[in-house]
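User: Here's a chain of 229 residues. Predict its fold as tokens.
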Amino acid sequence: MYKALLIIFLPLFVAKLSHAQNWTDAEFRKANTAANASYLTDEEKNIVMYMNLIRIDGEKFYYTFLEDYINNYNAKVRKYRNYNELKITRTNPYYISLLKHMRGIKNLQMFYPDEKLTLVSRSHAQDLNRNNLGSHESSNGDTFAKRLSKYFPNKAMSENIDFGYSNSLDIVCHLLLDCGVPALGHRFNLLDQKYKLNTVGVSIQKHPSYTWCAVIDFVAQPLFYTNNQ
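Assistant: Prediction complete.
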């Protein structure tokens, strides 16, 4: 039903979620680096915010927003005959391994949105939609690295692509759990410390086969921000 691709290398609706009260206003403000990014939609801004909340306190995110996602997801798929196969249980090995990876994640470098990088992400998401593709490779054969290197040469970079969701929390938690992806590449991009990824481009677009696709590009570069953007 949902698919994700990986490459190795103050929100509008948070108050509706049952565990939002476990986070402080200061934490939301710190995470909301995309607040004034006019080139992003509200859901795209919230993708950045949720990724940053993970990096502020991984274990707290695990027991709050991830729990909300799992509960909502299980409620949605209950109508299907293969519900027992689709549901996410507390014994799911990806759920269990995630806690191990989230413990110790505390006050990491925030992700900051970048308009130029977002244009690259949006172009690829639109290409996936237009040509009904499900790949990091563009319809003209360009790899993800080639696309990003045109604008960010000689930088560490990575890319996550998610299919099936248009809601920001769903997108982030789906990538974070990384069910069915043994290498856990999506997860490790979100929790990155090794490559110092700190700049992101985000785009959510429609898709003919999966209804929605979301492209998130990551680049490591010097930052000169003193305030949330």
